[in-house]
């Protein structure tokens, strides 16, 4: 017996990243115990951050393509929401693009455990974001998507940004790293 979905009720999230995409993301997840040299850490971080960024770029591209194709009737307010979502993704890109000397903050075992927890939350948020974005332009009417999924996606992207900033801090890449002399070694 199929249960009817109540309007406004959150839809269940089906797996939306392909196994290849999810595998690529997991394959690029760093091994933080190997962050013994800055060169290795920077390389591993760059690869992992690009993998996360690629998944988020897919979300942004999908949102923009729905607007461009006008596959559903979209109001100016709906297009504004899409712009806000794409801007949030851009904010995350700037956080993922943070550079500097990678230095684990505090007690490395505890810091590594915190970063790994954040990574698992980020992967979940990517999965949820991709699922929500793929709901737009499918058989779900746009007006329903903007009432249910869009607010959840905004909250998820805000959380992603916060977690990315926390992750940056734990890696010694807080916002102040942007102003440090790139040639100077961290103490």
What does this structure look like?
The protein is mainly α and 187 residues long. It has a domain at 47-174. The protein is built from 5 helices and no strands. Mean pLDDT is 79; it is low at 1-15 and 181-187. The chain is 64% helix and 0% strand. It is elongated, with a radius of gyration of 19 Å. The termini are far apart.
Q: Which features characterize this protein?
A:
single chain, 187 residues, 0% strand, mainly alpha, elongated, 5 helices
Secondary structure elements and their pairing?
Elements: H1 19-27, H2 38-69, H3 76-96, H4 108-135, H5 142-170
Helix pairs in contact: 2-3, 2-4, 3-5, 4-5
Binned strand content:
under 5%
The helix tally amounts to: 5
Helix content: 55-70%
Give the low-confidence spans: 1-15, 181-187
- N to C succession of SSEs: HHHHH
Rg computed from alpha carbons, rounded to a whole number of angstroms: 19 Å
Mean pLDDT: 79
Largest sheet: none
Distance between the termini: 63 Å
Q: Return the structural class.
A: mainly alpha
DSSP, total strands: 0
- Shape field: elongated
